[in-house]
Structure formats: C-alpha cells, structure tokens
Design brief:
- The structure is a single chain.
- The chain contains 3 helices and 9 strands; from the N terminus they run ααββββββββαβ.
- The chain is mostly beta strands and 172 residues long.
- The strands form 2 sheets. A 6-stranded mixed β-sheet has the order 3-9-8-5-6-7, with no helix packed on it. A 3-stranded antiparallel β-sheet has the order 2-1-4, with no helix packed on it.
- The mean pLDDT is 93.
- It comes from Triticum urartu.
- It holds the Pfam family PBP.
- This is Protein HEADING DATE 3A.
C-alpha cells in the first residue's frame, strides 16, 4: 500500500492522475505552512494564502485550488469546486507575482470534511488561460489538457470542515 499522502488522501485519482513531483510547493495561511492532510477551519483559510513554488529556474507555473467534495464528501455532485486559479507564477516568486484568473474564494464547507487541493503545473511559456464561466464542476484534468500543461509538478492538500463540527471522513 502506498504511503504517498496524495494517494492516501485520494487527490491522485479524484483530481489528478499519478505524477512525479518535480517542484516544491509551500502554502502558508498566516505563517502556518500546510502539510498534506492537515486540518484547517474556514476561519483559518478566510484570507488568500502565501504560495511559493520552487522548481526549474526561469519557469512559469499555473496554480489551481479546488475542493473535490462539494457539496459533501458523500455526494460530491459539484466536484471539483474551483476556489482559485493563478497563471504565470515565476519560479521562486510568490503567487502574487502571477496573473489571477479566478479570484481566491475561501472554502466554506457545510457538510463533512472537505479536501482542498492545490495543484501546480509548469507552463511551457507565458500564455493566456481564460476563466471558466463557473466554479462548480471544474475539471483540473481538462484545463491541463486544454492548455497543454501536461502532468502536475506539485500538489498539496488540507482538510477543512465547518466551524464547530467534529467527526470523521465519509466517502461514498
């Protein structure tokens, strides 16, 4: 059995296919760096995080932030919900140096424990990537194919549930 947290947490499978990471992704909410599977409440992720990507010098990156468990993990009928889309992020630069295509929207789960994933792609060149007309039913694999982004180069995720709730994860 694999110990890769992206496989165990079903990020690989539900959002992306297996990939070999070739970049490092750091996501910080108020100076707290997320680790795969860490628990954060909506109040802790209300503000846009600081995101840094370290990879191939001179490269540009695209960042996708999605929740595959909307409206609930047992009925993810709106999988994937797009929370954020940023392109043209320079290597070693913060995400704020990129082009925000879809503005950050904080996760606000109402039922169950939601996985919120950050997926990074290396761009072949600076390119225009257009905002989808909706946030629900976004498909990370489709945008990668549509814009020839290839396989992801990094990913991370955290778990989030509504304030004051408790309990374990339920999959359908």
């Amino acid at each position: 059995m694999s110990r890769d947290p992206l496989i165990v947490g079903r990020i690989v499978g539900d959002i992306v296919d297996y990939f070999d990471a070739s970049a490092r992704l750091r996501v910080l909410y108020s100076y707290r760096e997320i680790t795969n599977g860490s628990e954060l409440r909506p109040s802790q992720v209300a503000n846009q995080p600081t995101v840094q990507i370290t990879g191939r010098p001179g490269s540009l990156y695209t960042l996708v932030m999605v929740d595959p468990d909307v409206p609930s993990p047992s009925d993810p009928s709106q999988r994937e919900y797009l929370h954020w889309l940023v392109t043209d992020i320079p290597e070693r630069g913060d995400v704020s140096c990129g082009t925000e295509v879809v503005p950050y929207e904080r996760p606000q789960p109402t039922a169950g424990i939601h996985r919120v994933a950050f997926v990074v792609f290396r761009q072949a060149a600076r390119q225009a990537i257009y905002a989808p007309g909706w946030r629900s039913n976004f498909v990370t694999r489709d945008i990668a194919e549509c814009y020839s982004l290839g396989a992801p180069v990094a990913a991370a995720y955290f778990n989030c549930q509504r304030e004051g709730s408790c309990g374990g994860r339920r999959y359908r």
